[in-house]
Write a structure and sequence with these properties.
By secondary structure, the protein is an alpha/beta fold. Helices cover 42% and strands 17% of the residues. It has helices at 41-45, 52-74, 93-110, 119-125, 169-179, 186-194, 218-233, 240-265, 281-294, 310-322; strands at residues 10-15, 20-27, 31-39, 83-89, 114-118, 137-142, 147-152, 159-163, 270-274, 298-299. The strands form two sheets. Strands 3-2-1-4-5 form a five-stranded mixed beta sheet, with helices on both faces. A hairpin with a 4-residue loop joins strand 1 and strand 2 (20-27). Helix 4 crosses helix 10 (310-322) and helix 5 packs antiparallel against helix 8. The longest helix has 26 residues, at 240-265.
Length: 342
């Protein structure tokens, strides 16, 4: 289905899939008029991870304020909106319901369309806030809950060609960080610590069967945790920086090589990297070098669009709006929404 990318649009988007209460206004799918994020990171840090019930309660407290601030900062009135886009899933169901119900109320009150958005498509379309997408393309989506290679032959068309068979990369980062005694969230802490270390420890790379584009990080995670425990049991001090650097190098090598392999297999004109783990310095640097060597254009969003935010939901929602995707007031959140079925 062809869409008119030149059509003028003004979309308010809401994102509450996990622990960020976010709202944004985006013009024409590419111009960010406002992007408000109320983070709960400090709240969940004391628990070492996100507590779903706590997250939901804080979404309820923040959602109205965040939406009003997004409109105020955008400089437009409610009457200028073309639609309200909202993350339908996947995510924590209690958190999703706060955003979905707020979006339904706003759509009903202002008489404008309601557009459901898949969270992962939001991460992919964060790249359109940087530059126009070129098809066909391969997108690596790598976050706390997802590690997927997605093939797109046109706007709004998603085919998963590789996925994790066990832990997501971000989940492995958090669990290794916890074992090393680092605070939550673990990914940025591992990244910072690794800069002071050397890749002196030979941790495994899971390539799986020949030709597979799937990922597996459970074995690597176990290898790192076992190494740390064994060293401590023998009374030896663990060089945390070396452990972090060696672990991160293993993750990065697998992500980069499989992404480039997928791009070459599917004759991609562009490679995208998206999701919270795309903020990792080493992954960004090694992906850039590999893409350049392969002659593949690479797009990675600025750090502010890597983690959960509503501007990316508006970018994806704009495409959904232009393709005629609509929801009525029976819309519900879906914790395990599939990107291919969406």
């Amino acid at each position: 289905m062809s869409i008119d990318l030149d059509r003028k649009t003004m979309i308010l988007a809401i994102e509450t899939s996990c622990d960020e209460t976010a709202a944004a206004v985006v013009e024409n799918g590419t111009i960010v008029r406002s992007n408000i994020v109320a983070s709960q990171m400090d709240i969940h840090k004391r628990f070492g991870g996100v507590v779903p019930e706590v997250a939901s309660r804080h979404h309820v407290e923040q959602i109205t304020v965040v939406c009003e601030e997004a409109i105020r900062e955008s400089g437009i009135g409610w009457e200028e909106l073309d639609a309200v886009a909202v993350t339908q899933g996947p995510g924590l169901i209690g958190a999703l319901l706060v955003g979905v119900n707020c979006a339904k109320a706003l759509a009903y009150a202002h008489g404008i369309p309601l557009v459901p958005v898949h969270h992962i498509t939001g991460h992919i379309y964060a790249n359109r806030l940087v530059t126009e997408l070129q098809f066909p393309l391969i997108a690596l989506v790598v976050s706390g809950g997802h590690t997927e290679l997605v093939y797109m032959k046109e706007h709004g068309n998603y085919h998963v060609v590789g996925t994790t068979r066990d832990d997501a990369a971000g989940e492995a980062f958090d669990k290794v960080a916890r074992t090393l005694g680092l605070p939550y969230p673990g990914g940025p802490e591992i990244d910072r610590l690794a800069r002071r270390g050397n890749t002196a420890i030979d941790f495994p790379r899971a390539w799986l069967e020949e030709g597979s584009l799937d990922f597996s990080f459970s074995g690597l995670k176990s290898a790192v945790i076992n190494y740390i425990h064994n060293e401590r049991q023998r009374g030896r001090e663990v060089n945390r920086a070396d452990a972090a650097a060696s672990f991160q190098a293993s993750v990065s090598e697998v992500l980069v090589k499989k992404t480039i392999a997928a791009a070459e297999r599917y004759s991609a004109r562009q490679v995208l990297v998206a999701g919270g783990v795309s903020a990792n310095r080493q992954i960004r640097e090694e992906m850039a070098l590999a893409a350049e060597s392969a002659g593949l254009p690479l797009v990675i969003p600025p750090l502010k669009y890597c983690t959960d935010n509503a501007a990316m939901i508006a970018a994806a929602g704009t495409i959904g709006f232009l393709k005629g995707r609509r929801a009525d007031l029976s819309l519900n959140g879906s914790a395990s929404l599939s990107i291919e079925d969406f």
